[in-house]
Amino acid sequence: MSLEPLHVTNGDSAAHTLERTSLGGNALPWRDALHEGPLPFASRAAFLDARVAFLAETGWGSRTSLAGEFHARDDELLAALRAGRSVVLWFEHDLYDQLQLLDVLALVHSTGAPHETLELVQVGSFPGRPAFRGLGELSSDELETLWPQRAPIAPSLLAEASAIWADVRADDPRALAKRAVSAIDGMPFLASALARFVEELPALRDGLSRTERQLLHVLAGGPQSSQRAYIASQGLEDAPFHGDTWVYRALWELGRGDVRLVESAAGGPVPPVAARDPESGAVELRLTSAGRRVLDGNADRVEVLGIDRWVGGTHLVPGAVWRWDGEQRSVVAPG
């Protein structure tokens, strides 16, 4: 009697739909926004500790509950492989998914878990959906049509994914930048996703990440709510990957302090973000004069606001600010 499959995917929406298909088994959502916060090059335990601490600080949950969820998630994946269950990874083309996919493959490789039953479904488009954004928008019938596309994962791909994941988590982002221009057999969407990731480094010209620049550009068109700014900024992405909470957090960081780039419609600082709080999207915002100077390239975001942010394994703090030269498509070292 064959064992029921385990479906691993990017979040609860796709997971719930997969469990309504006729494919059988259960679904495991990976549940981590790896494009935000630290990705230290450390042991699995230390890596998860860093993720738990960061996500708890942003309001995703308590440290105890998050740690329990992450360890249980890892254990369920590895136990399924060791039991000989079919494990099918369902991921799409955007940065959010591609980082999760790297994390999963590197975990399997580093633990030496059996991988003979590991398969991958990954898509960047879907017939009849010209504005396809992700697996979560598909019906159970539509997901089932992707089942024949699943492909086994070769040992070479596991090893390559693990090496790439190590480069993403390095404290020097130049390795990440090199990966962003290298095609990977078996992961056709990875290079473009990593190219988007490296654009989150402060730009050489203005100190803004691409996400921040898009938000200021949107607000330059006139005051609007956080939610409308989020939707408009995502419309500027080739493959939208941000959740609303992370964009609201970026707006909050731009709107702190006496010399801020964004402010509330009343002229005050942007209020703190509460994760999953619908009120966060209702805050009316406007660009400040300082924000206009930075957007025009006449001031530097890092010099105006300071910085304490991670891009992969690179911790950006004053005195250690790696930058992205968009014209040369290269990383510029601090100093």
Write up what this structure looks like:
- The chain contains 13 helices and 12 strands.
- Helices cover 40% and strands 13% of the residues.
- Strand 3, helix 4 and strand 4 (118-123) form a beta-alpha-beta unit.
- The mean pLDDT is 95.
- The chain starts with 5 loop residues before the first strand and ends with a strand.
- It has 2 domains: 6-198, Rossmann fold (3-Layer(aba) Sandwich); 210-306, Topoisomerase II, domain 5 (Alpha-Beta Complex), CATH 3.90.199.10.
- The protein has 335 residues and is of the alpha/beta class.
Strand content is 5-15%
Write down the CATH class of the largest domain.
Alpha Beta
User: Any idea of the CATH topology of the largest domain?
Assistant: Rossmann fold
Secondary structure class reads alpha/beta
Strands, total number: 12
Query: Largest beta sheet, briefly?
Result: 5 strands, mixed
Radius of gyration: 20 Å
The N- and C-terminal alpha carbons lie at a distance of 63 Å
Order of helices and strands: EHEHHEHEHEHHHHEHHEEHHEEEE
**Oligomeric state, counting identical vs distinct chains:** single chain
Percentage of residues in helical conformation: 40-55%
Strand order of the largest sheet: 2-1-3-4-5
Please mark out the parts with pLDDT under 50 across 5 or more consecutive residues, or reply none. none
The figure for the number of domains is 2
